[in-house]
Amino acid sequence: MAQLRTLESRSAEWVAKHLVMAGRLIDFDPETAFQHALAASRRGGRIGAVREAVGMTAYAAGRYDDALREFRTFRRITGSSIHLPHMADCERGLGRPEKALELARSEERNMLDAAGKVELAIVASGARSDLGDHAGAVEELEIPQLDINRAFSFSPRLFEAYADALSAAGRSSEAAKWYRQIGVAESALGVDEVEEPDILDLGWDEEEERRAEEERRSRVAGARAEHGAGYAEEDAEAKEDAESNDEEAEHVEGLADDEIGVTERDAFEADDEAAEEGESDAGADDDARDTGSEHGA
Q: Is this structure's pTM higher than 0.85?
């Protein structure tokens, strides 16, 4: 490391060995890595790379006070704001989301590269969520680097953060689309991708998505129309049944009328017969009286 050349040879060797161990252990044993970085700082405390190592190992170990102090020292020594996202996240870790947002709004953010701006946006989104502002968390991630059609080394992480924010804001259907795109971006980048690649087309076809949505709506409309036709057929059948019932009722009523008519005719005929019998009996009585009169005479 070029910066170690400013040190006396034995000190430079001492510092280098501890930095190597810190780098090896940071992902597996961050606390031990932090102790190695601290040991390196005892002889190389004025070197920016050493203070950076202390800050990064402290950050990995969750020692946010120590990390924040070391990142500030690194910035003062080098004039670089490359660790602004880490500093903002340390503020979050210390329970100060408002401070994190202040750093995210500072002019220093303009000194970051694309990857740094993405990391700072993710931290700012997390700070918004800490404050219960889920809609604001979504807005923090809607930056130029958020492009569903392109993939960079930071894209999977950005897509995941955006999907999580959308989900927390209750926008599940949109979140599902971005969750799917994480895998697409990772496949496009490759597992062993180290350096930021050229722009990659992720194959997201918005026109195809629109056609799929139209097809879905068409199916829904067709299903509704089919149900509507079924209801119309049922109504027609019910109407036919009603008309059939009316005709049957009229037929039965006609039969009843005919039966009543026959009954009335039978009654009239019976009355006529009774009347004729009465007239016949009356005539017989008259004949009997006339015969009696003749005999009396």
A: no
